[in-house]
Each structure stands twice: as C-alpha cells, then as structure tokens.
Amino acid sequence: MFWGGKTWFIGFLGSNHEMLTVEVCPFVAKYTFALAVKLLLGVRDGTELEKLAKPFVEAAGGIIAVPINIPGTRFNRGVKASEKIREVINGIIAQRRKDLADGTADPSQNLLSHMIVEVGKRNEDTTNAPTTDGDMASALARAANRWLRHHQHHGRVHYDDACRLPRCLPREQMEIAKGKSEGELLNWDDLRKMKYSWNVACEVLRMRPPTVGAFRVAKTDFTYGGFTIPKGWKLHYLPHYTQRNHEFFPNPEKFDPSRFEGAGPAPYTFVPFGGGARMCPGNEYARAEILVFMYNIVTRYNWERMIPDEKVVIDPLPRPVHGLPIKLIPHKTEP
C-alpha cells in the first residue's frame, strides 16, 4: 500500500480546501520533506520535523558554493547546517536503538530501524572496523538530501508544465479512481496502469532535468565531437543540452509525452536518474512518489497558474521567483 491516502495528503493543503491558492514550491518542499523523513527515519512528530527542516534548507544552499569556510559565507552556513543535521539524526538513532531493545519499535518499519539491526550484525562479525552512529547519520543525511533536492524539483516542474497539458492525464487517473473504494490507497497494479502519466512525467524530466549534471572519469582515451578525451580526465555532462539533442528528440522544445511510448528514447539519451551501474537507487521511489502525488491532485482538482509568465532563477536548481502560485479548484464530485 502507498502513502496516497486522502486524509494525509489533504492535511498538507489545510482544512479549507474548497477553493485555495497554493504556492507550489513551499508546498512540495514540505510534502516531500515530511515523506522522505517519515520513510527514512520514521519521524512523524512535528517538533522533530522542524528540527531537521531548517538545517536541510541551509545545507542545500551550500552544496553549490565557493568552498570558502569562513563565517557569513553560504558554504559556512551549509557546513554548520550539515553538522546540525547529523546531531539531530544521531539523537534519533540513539532513541530508536532503545526502542528496538525494549520492543516498542519494529526492525523492518523503516530504513533507520533496518540499518541499526544490520549494522549491529555487521559490527559483531567485523570488529576491527565498526560502523558508528556518526557513519549512519552521515549516510542517512546524504540519502535524504538527494531525495529532497531531486523530488522537490520533480513536483515543482510537474505543476509548471502540467498547466499546459491536454486532458488525457485526468482521464487516465479518473479511470483508476473509479475502481477504488472510499479511502482505499493505491497499489503497485494501479501505478503500472499509469502509463500515460509516467510518459508525462518523463517528458517533464527531459525538458526540466532534476540535476545540473554529473561528473564521470574517462576509463580510456576516446574521441567525441571532434575532441580527444584522454584517459583519466574528468568530464561533466549537462542533461539540459543532451536531452534536447535533435538527433534523438525531434522538435525538442515541444512538450510531447508520446516520445516515451513503446521502446522510448535510445539508451543513455534520457538520464534523469543516471544510467548503468551508477544509476540512482531511488529511481523507483521517485516514480512512485511522483505518480501518487499526481493522482491525488489530478483526481481532486483543476488548477490555474496565477502568474502565467513567472520568471525562473537557478539557485542551484530551477526555481520560480514567486514560488509558482496556483489556484486549486476542486471537482464537483470527488472520486
């Protein structure tokens, strides 16, 4: 079962959802943060969420910054925020270990509980290089940060482009909703039926990649575009350009979800989650999160952009300057 329940989702919109204006950026940030922390750490308490929310925002601001670690710089604020995140997560780890010991927590309830149990077993077998709570806190902080940066971006750009979509998307989602009883959550079979919805999501990710690129090291000498790249050189690719290559994506500036029908684009031409052995391990989580999010919005609301030509800044990922305000208009009859 999924986290797509009406009650939990509507809670993020507030109690008055008859007609409301929502700034998509802060809304999606809050939603994806709470979801990621809930799944990774099992944190549901609002106070604990607040302890983590602010430093995560500050840490994200220091990721792409001049690495000068002096007071007042963005990099310095990011370093301090990262230390605060690890401090809070260390406290959560200590409490979870106690809960596991006295039986009030389930070892399989979330990633943190599973990690504590598995790390404990590993440390018993390998005593010369034990994994510390600090190691776990750092690993969880990195995982949460990656999820949050990419998935917040997914939600923002989905709304930005969805305002221009044909009505095929609502029809597909409504067909699934008709087969659900009141309060019934989505399951894997439902997600598999959302083929057009995922095509839409992929086209958004093609036109608005969730990352500014990635670094790779050349394993051998090769020639590309008339340039010789020696073995050992580090390369940086920009999906904003590679995913708009006319050779693989005809008329690349056109929003066309049909590109992903059938076999879809050629291998390694569409890489929102990377590719090969280094593909992002959270790609299936992202797919489920995006589709569940789309389902809950599309089956309940129509929407209108409040600022049709809102400017976008890069900081460090694309961000609408006014937060992408939209008006949500509920359907006359909810599914």
From TrEMBL:
PROSITE patterns: CYTOCHROME_P450. Its cofactor is heme. GO terms for cellular component: membrane. It is a single-pass membrane protein. It comes from the Eukaryota. It holds the Pfam family p450. GO terms for biological process: sterol metabolic process. Signal peptide: none annotated. Heme binds at residue 280. GO terms for molecular function: heme binding; iron ion binding; monooxygenase activity; oxidoreductase activity, acting on paired donors, with incorporation or reduction of molecular oxygen. InterPro entries: Cyt_P450, Cyt_P450_CS, Cyt_P450_E_grp-I, Cyt_P450_sf. Keywords: Heme, Iron, Membrane, Metal-binding, Monooxygenase, Oxidoreductase, Transmembrane, Transmembrane helix. It is found in: Membrane. Belongs to the cytochrome P450 family. PANTHER family: BETA-AMYRIN 28-OXIDASE, CYTOCHROME P450 26. This is Cytochrome P450.
